[in-house]
C-alpha cells in the first residue's frame, strides 16, 4: 500500500469545485458560506480578529497525522523531526508524543527542546560550523548523536568530551548527488558547504580520524541531498553510494557501522498541481535498495534514520494577512499586506510561489492577476507574484496563504522592527497561542546603546 503525505481526502466533499483550491491546505480546511475558511474547526477570520495579523494558524492534528504517516511508512526506522523547519515548545511536545526524535542545529534549539522535556538521547545535533558553545551544550545535555561535518570538528569535540565517556557521532557525507527545488537548497553536491566528500577521500579520512579517538564512538554515516526533492530516485542513488562507503569502511577498518541517516528534504506542494514526494513509495524503494545493497556487500542492514521537517509541519500551517492597500501601476496591480519578507523571506530567497486566498467575505467579482507584496522597504518583498484574486479585493480584506508551517517563523527577521507574528494552534474548534507576537518592547529591551 502506498502511503503519501500528500494523498489527502477532499477538503470539502460537499463542494467539489473547491477541492482543488484547498488541496494544499490542511486536511481539516473547510470553506464556509460567507467566504471564510476553518482550519481545525477554527475560523481564520475570527482568529485574525482575535490575535491580529499577520498570524500563523497551525493545525495540531495535521502535524500529528503527518508524524504518524512517517511512523507507518518506516516502522523499523528512527524518524527525527528537523526542528529548523519550525520549533516551539508545543511542537517539540507533539513530535515527542508521536514517537519522533528531534534534529537540532544549535545550542538554542537544543536547550529549548530539552527544557521542554524532550529526551536528549533522542536528539541529533547538526551544523556545518558548530560553535564551541554548541558542542559543549550538546555534551552537557547528553545528545544522542552529533553529526560531524568537518575534520577540525573531530579534534575540537574529542578535546572537550569528558574523561571516561564516549560521544556517539556520525559523519556527514557528500554523496555527489544533485537534488532539490533550487540551487540554494541542494546539499548533496561537491560545490557547497555541507559534509565531507566521498570523491576526494575526505569522508574516509574523517572516519579514520574518529576511529582513532577514544572518546568518540562512530555509529554511522549521514547524508542530506537537498530540499524540496520530489522524486525517489535521488534517495535510492544516495543509499547505494552510502552502502558502498560502509562496505569500504568495513574492509579497511574491520568496523560495521550500525546506523545510516539519509536526511530529509521531502517536497510538499505549495500550489495546487505541484509535485510532492510520496513517502510510501520512498519507503518501499529505500528499503529494497538498502536490503539489496547490503546483501551484495555482505553487510548487516543498518538502522535507518530519516529527518523530515517541512513535510511534517509545512502543510499544517496557514498564514493570514490583512490587505493594507491596492495599487494599480501600468498593467500591474499590487496588493500590499501587513507582513512580508520579515515573516516569509522564502520568495525573495528562492523564488517560491504561493496560492493566497481571499477569506472572510464572499466575492462574485471575476478574478484578476495581482502581485501580493509586503510592507517592507525592498522591491523584492513579494509574497506571491501574478496570482488570481477577486477583482474587488480592497484594503481591510484578509488573505490566507497555505503551506506556511515551515521556514516562515523560523526564518523570520526583525527587518524594519515590525515584530514577528504569533503562532496559534487550532484543534477541535479551539484556538490557543503557542508563540506570542513579538512586541516593540521585546525588541527595545535588546537595545542598550544609550
Helix content: 25-40%
Estimate the mean pLDDT confidence: 92
**Total number of strands:** 21
* Largest sheet report: 9 strands, mixed
| Distance linking N and C termini | 64 Å
Estimate the strand proportion. 15-25%
Low-confidence stretches: 1-16
As a whole number of angstroms, the C-alpha radius of gyration is 23 Å
Structural class: alpha/beta
Please tell me what the overall shape is.
globular
Annotation field: number of helices: 12
Task: Describe the protein.
The chain is α/β, with parallel strands linked by helices and 450 residues long. Helix content is 28%, strand content 23%. The strands form three sheets. Strands 4, 14, 15, 16, 17, 18, 19, 20 and 21 form a nine-stranded mixed beta sheet that branches. An eight-stranded parallel β-barrel has the order 5-6-7-8-9-11-12-13, surrounded by five helices. The chain has a three-stranded antiparallel beta sheet with strand order 1-2-3. Strand 20 and strand 21 form a beta hairpin. Helix 4 packs parallel to helix 5 (132-141) and helix 8 (233-253) packs parallel to helix 9.
